[in-house]
Design a protein that fits this description.
By secondary structure, the protein is mainly alpha-helical. It has four helices and no strands.
């Protein structure tokens, strides 16, 4: 039997990445964007879904007064802050640099830009993770 902690994290990641693919497919009216199954960025945040799913299971199994839950909340906060603030800013800067390189007709090849997340994408990912964490807890109880 797989650990409910690992199962929650894995399922949350799969559901969030699958949701990205479906949302992108509806927006572009094309089901050929398979890159959405593994790229970072977009709605919902798979990073947030993963850490919140694991944190939820930890809270339900070990208790919200446990040291492990405290550590999980701290780690989840750092991951979600990083996704929203640091990675999002870096992605915006990368996009701007690529536009500048193109406008200047530079010989430097524009690089692939990794997008971070907007606050709504992080919240949506956290909600996905919370629901997955609850489902895994009650399914493995």
């Amino acid at each position: 039997m797989i650990s409910p902690y690992l199962l929650a994290g894995l399922l949350a990641w799969i559901v969030a990445q699958g949701a990205k693919y479906i949302i992108n497919s509806i927006q572009t009216k094309s089901f050929r964007q398979f890159r959405q199954l593994y790229l970072s960025g977009s709605m919902p945040s798979a990073h947030s879904a993963t850490v919140i799913a694991v944190t939820t299971v930890i809270g339900l199994v070990d208790g919200i007064d446990s040291g492990l839950f405290g550590l999980a909340v701290l780690l989840s906060s750092i991951v979600m802050y990083d996704a929203m603030m640091v990675r999002h800013s870096a992605g915006e800067q990368g996009t701007t640099l690529n536009l500048l390189l193109t406008a200047l007709k530079s010989e430097i090849k524009p690089s692939r830009v990794t997008k971070g997340h907007t606050p709504i994408e992080v919240v949506a990912g956290a909600l996905v993770g919370f629901v997955i964490g609850l489902v895994v807890f009650f399914a493995t109880k």
